[in-house]
Specification:
Distance between the termini: 39 Å
Helix content: under 10%
Number of strands: 5
Radius of gyration: 11 Å
């Protein structure tokens, strides 16, 4: 099993698109623990996955950010 390197506020690309109007695959990690909480960069909705499911669905880490991105709805 490969070791995945992701941290808080990283921008990640997932395998599947988020079913919002933007249809984006890019998310920002907003909480790391036993579960991973991430925010859709298209609509701002929050999705929570178990670490196991997140590791299965992660395609790649795009960028390391220092702070959270604010999306206005």
């Amino acid at each position: 099993m490969k070791v995945l390197d992701y941290q808080l506020f990283d921008i990640v690309e997932m395998n599947k698109e988020h079913p919002c109007s933007a249809r984006t695959k890019r998310f920002q990690i907003v909480r790391v623990g036993a579960d991973i909480k991430m925010m859709c960069l298209g609509c701002g909705n929050i999705i929570m996955l178990t670490r196991y499911d997140f590791n299965k669905r992660l395609r790649k880490v795009i960028a390391h950010e220092e702070k959270a991105i604010v999306i206005k709805k």
